[in-house]
Amino acid sequence: MTSAPMSGRKAQAARNDELILQAARAVFTADPGAPIAAVAEKAGVGISALYRRYPSKEALLQKLCGDGLKLYIEVTERALAEEGDPWEAFAGYLRGIVDADTNSLTIKLAGTFQPTEELGRDAMRAGALATEIHRRTVEAGVLRPDLTTADIALLLEQIASIRVGDERRISELRHRYLTLMMDALRLPPARRELPGPAATDEELSSRWWAGS
């Protein structure tokens, strides 16, 4: 059964909402203290259109982090549904979290707004799922038993902090260091070819120049 097409007005509202959320993520992960007007400007929508959908910056931050949690839950549930090699399921979970980039929201937005009850429930669900995939992988004998879920969360935050070059290059470097990290966590330790070239001195130096 297919959904009925949205009216022109509803379709435009949906497009505006997507633009607002994309802009909000970019603006607030760059500067959590940015005003909500900066989101409207980046999204190319009027401030009144933004306020009709999100009455406050707090509501917009809650929506961003709620979407991030739901995506985390989706990635983890998909990995837990895998019935094959337990290490590959765990590796797919880590790659999915890095691609979803939910940790960037944690790094920048934690403590900047009041979580809702729904966010609390989703956070508990996400934590339970993370504990389950960790337990399953350790019990399979393919993950270091001294590694905790908190260790994994902080390691993923370190990877999310990599911001060198454009979006493609950022993703390439994150997966390079994720591969290196996974080789150290696996039992027995692995040594695979690292994807993508290492960061160059020029790329690292460019971060000090405005607009780079």
Report the major sheet.
none
In round numbers, the mean pLDDT is 92
Structural class: mainly alpha
Q: Sum up the overall morphology in one term.
A: globular
Keywords:
mainly alpha; 212 residues; globular
Task: Give a written overview of the molecule.
- With 212 residues, the protein is an all-alpha fold.
- It is built from 10 helices and no strands.
Sequence-ordered SSE layout with sheet pairings:
Layout: H1 8-30, H2 36-43, H3 47-53, H4 57-80, H5 86-100, H6 102-109, H7 117-139, H8 149-160, H9 167-185, H10 201-206
Short recap of the structure:
This protein is mostly helical and 212 residues long.
